[in-house]
Amino acid sequence: MTRKIMILLLIALLSYLTIQNTFAQEVREQNISGEIVGGLRLLSIEPDQVNDFVIYRGDYIQPSVSGQKHFTIEIPDLKITKTFPANEGERAYIKMKKPGSYDFTAGTIRGTIKVIEYTATSYTELSAEQAGQVLQNTTPLILDVRTPGEFKQGYIQGANLLPVQVIQQHIKKLESHKDQDIFIYCATGNRSTVASRILIKSGFKKIYNLRYGISDWAKRGYPVVQ
Fold it and tell me: Is the pLDDT reported for residue 162 higher than 70?
């Protein structure tokens, strides 16, 4: 077999794997429950139906129960008890930080929430050390998806503040960066995972996510602008 044929076969194989990975990602997305609105994954719990949900690690879920204005959701394995609607000043969501399958109840309604890791050909999770190397050797667009208050307490040099809650509203402002490397971080790596998925779903080609956030970045001695 000539070298030219081998190269052509390799290119064909890589193209096939890319197509397969893209297809697998689309299948996964079709099986994910609810939708992301304002950075929150909305889940509708239905009485007298099977309520088995699949979401991604890092999702902030905001459940609702059909026909019930007030309800309490309990997830025993995570020691979570949360009443909705949330009181003023309380968080109106539940953060899902760990992969796994969790039984829940909402009054007399039972169900399961399966939390899985996000994977995509356009997506790479980085440790603090890996992120330091990326930022040293490349010039990605850096997005801090925390709140303005968190940003004021310290941020990574060159970061642009774009809270995950409003990233969908401002997605058009990032259009010119669709083919550029984008480095995203938050406090601990959950909101940045949500933001990464929003961008990839909108056609962005290369997303880096700081897996454990700026908290781990600072803990390991990497610089933070105060």
Answer: yes
Give the torsion sign (CA, 113, 119, 124, 125).
positive
Q: Of 158, 215, 154, nearest to 189 (Cα)?
A: 215
CA distances in angstroms from 150 to 17, 145, 146, 157, 201, listed in the order given: 40, 10, 6, 15, 26
Catalytic pick among 145, 184, 186, 198 = 186
CA distances from 60 to 12, 93, 98, 207 (A): 40, 6, 12, 20
What's the pLDDT tens digit per position in 117-140?
898 889 999 999 999 999 999 999
In CATH terms, 123-219 corresponds, of 1.10.1760.20, 3.90.180.10, 3.40.250.10, 3.30.70.20, to: 3.40.250.10
**Domain boundaries of the chain, sorted by first residue:** 35-116, 123-219
Structure tokens at 216: 């781990």
- In the three-class reduction of DSSP (H, G, I as helix; E, B as strand; rest coil), residue 78 is classed as helix
State yes or no: is 186 an active-site residue: yes
